[in-house]
Input
Amino acid sequence: MFLPKYPDNPTPPPAHTHTPADPMPARRSLPPVAVDRNTVVALIVGGVVLTALLAAVAVTAISVAIAAVVLRSMLRDHHRR
Output
């Protein structure tokens, strides 16, 4: 019942095998990149500067949030009296 049905006369394999007319060209490797000391120093300094700027923005945002909470608390106490 669940057995596959096979054809009586299977098709013969093709006599001609297809070969691509234009084979894939070999990939060229990238040229070597010379990394000197000045490039490494520039990348490190740039990373340090960007990290410092990100830390400054985070500290400023936290201090503004704390100041807003303190001012809100002071104004709420002022309006209650």
